[in-house]
Give the backbone structure.
Amino acid sequence: MTMHTAQGILAAAPDPLTKAFNEAIKPYVDQIETLKNEVEDLTLQLQQLEDERADMHAWIDKRGLRADVPPSIAAAMNTDPSAAQTLNYHIDRKMTVLNHDLHRLQDSLSSHLPTSTFATTLETLLPSIESLSALSSGPPLAFELIIKLGGNLNSHGGDEGWNNEADRASRAAFYARLDEVMVDIIRQRLEMKGAEDPSWAVFKDVKRLEKTGNFLKQKIGLQ
């Protein structure tokens, strides 16, 4: 038995066994088709979410907020190959802004601003610096930020900021905290593969730290 198709081509009618088989699997074929459509819809939704996440990350970076994002967002942003460089830039920028604001606040006052105010404000950057040091290629960048952070505190206070016990104690506590972070960063830097940190001038950095240490020893007797 034959029949005409829509194109006018003769085709054999399915035999009873084939017809029964086709009818038996039809529900499963329909389910497979439905699942394929659902997968396509989910793939589209996933792409939309990925695009939205990329837009959000770009918005954060454009406004210099990388150092302040919650850990869950930071974890996603840190998968980017340039995460360390980007985070370093944002921390450095935030440090500059804080330092400027502190100087401006001191200039607006007629009395000496306690060193503890400067120290407490600058210490807010330490968690971000520690996060930076945990990233691939992050330890050298974090090392430089720690040194810069210590220098920023030394630029505040004038003579009054060194000549009373409370300010000297605040500076000592601040540098003790910096030392803790610095030790961890140095350990991480030493553990880095040579290819990632090939040009570390250790002797030069030791001299830089010794210079700061001697300065603090003369100023406040810090050991």
The mean pLDDT is 81. Strands lie at 2-4, 10-12. DSSP finds eight helices and two strands in the chain.
